[in-house]
Every structure is written in structure tokens, then in C-alpha cells.
Amino acid sequence: MTTPRTVLVTGGNRGIGFAIAEEFLAQGHRVAVTARSGQGPVGSLTVQADVTDAASIDAAFTAIEAELGPVEVLVANAGITRDGLLMRMSEDDFADVIDTNLTGAFRVVKRASKGMLKARYGRIVLISSVVGLYGGPGQVNYSASKAALVGMARSITRELGARGITANVVAPGFIETDMTAALPEAQQAEYKKNIPAGRFATPTEVAKVVAWVGSDEAAYISGAVIPVDGGLGMGH
């Protein structure tokens, strides 16, 4: 039986984040989600916060700590896309994606690390993407932000590894979400041709991997990149 932990999932109001929060709840943990709008799954504590605003992150953590106790498992999932070809991509479109996906992860990890260091226990899971290491046309900003999370996790591991804190990266491939459902049929078929598994993943398949990496059982795994992509990236 795993010890019930206080878990925070950023961007837990939809898609993969919502499924991750559901999975931790199903395993008996105390779960909080941050969202700019909307709600996390039933049974979770939803706190409004924006990962681009350090003050709102601090306030969210303070509220979660008061209600559920210090955050022991952090899943940095909040992310945005602003796709466009390099030649047409504005600096704002580049900077906004970096600020949310990368600096946003830094903000929440920094705030969570205080309690983790005190407890000498912590699980940090950064949600990257197959695109982070495999690349994707029209996604210079997104790919850069997601690749950078690998360096972040590995540096955190070297800094905090001796304190019972792990930092890992989960890199999902194509997942059945509103985002992929909106793609034209022909494009979906083309993507599936390149995936050895021949299909997209369900959000639950990603959530179960995240929950395991965030568990007591994964104490000796840190600085790892775990792909959940049906073989698309092949470790790239």
C-alpha cells in the first residue's frame, strides 16, 4: 500500500493534467490542481493560479499547504502551444511559450522544493513531449521549452538527489485529447503511420506512468526521461 501523499498537478483542469489528477485520486492521494479557469476532477482541490505569475503560484501553494499539507509530489504539466513556422514566428510567440512551459515549471518547482527539502522527501515530475527531443516542424518554441525540461530535471537531481527528492521527465507522444481530435482525419492517419503502436495513447496511459514515477516505488529513478509515445521517439 502506498503512503497517501499531497500531490499538486499544474494545469489539472483538462486533458492529460486532468487524467493525472484522477489517477492520483484513484490511488488514494490528496490532490490539488492549479488552473487558470475550470475545475479539476471531483475530489480534488482546485486553486486558481497562473504559472507565469510567481505571486499567484506562492498564494496557490499557501492555500494548498493550509488545506492538504505540504506538497510532496509535484507534476508540472501546465503548457501552451503557439505553433508557427520559424520565419513567421514572432518573438512574443516564442517568449510566451518559454515563459509558461519552462519558466512556469521553474517557478512551481522552486516553490515546492522548500517543503520537500524540509521533509527530505519529494517527487518532481516534469511533463515534456516527444517533440522535445524528436523535433516538430512549426514548433521551434514548444520543442525548445520541452527539451529544456530534461536539463532542468537533471540539474535538480544533482542538487537535491541526496535529500530523498527525485526529478524526472515524462515525454508523451500523441494522446487522444481535444487537441488531437481537432486534427483532420488524413493528418491523424499520417501521424499514426509513424507510430509503431499504430494508435494514439489514452490520457490514462500517460497518467499511470506519471503516478508510478511519482510514487514511493520509484525512489531510485531520477534524471530520467520516460517516453510514453508508442515507440514514436525511440529514446530520442
What's the CATH topology name?
Answer: Rossmann fold
How many E-type strands? 7
**What global shape is seen?**
globular
Biggest beta sheet summary:
7 strands, parallel
Q: Gap between N and C termini, in Å?
A: 34 Å
CATH architecture: 3-Layer(aba) Sandwich
Core attributes:
Rossmann fold, 16% strand, 236 residues, 8 helices, seven-stranded parallel β-sheet, 7 strands, alpha/beta, globular
Q: What does the model show?
A:
This protein is of the alpha/beta class and 236 residues long. The chain has one domain: Rossmann fold (3-Layer(aba) Sandwich). It has helices at 15-26, 54-68, 91-119, 130-134, 140-160, 178-181, 185-194, 203-213, and strands spanning 6-10, 30-35, 45-48, 73-76, 122-127, 165-172, 225-228. Strands 3-2-1-4-5-6-7 form a seven-stranded parallel sheet, with helices on both faces. Helix 1 crosses helix 8 (203-213), helix 2 packs parallel to helix 3 (91-119) and helix 3 packs parallel to helix 5. The longest helix is centred in the middle third of the chain and has 29 residues, at 91-119. The radius of gyration is 17 Å and the shape is globular. The mean pLDDT is 96. Keywords: Oxidoreductase.
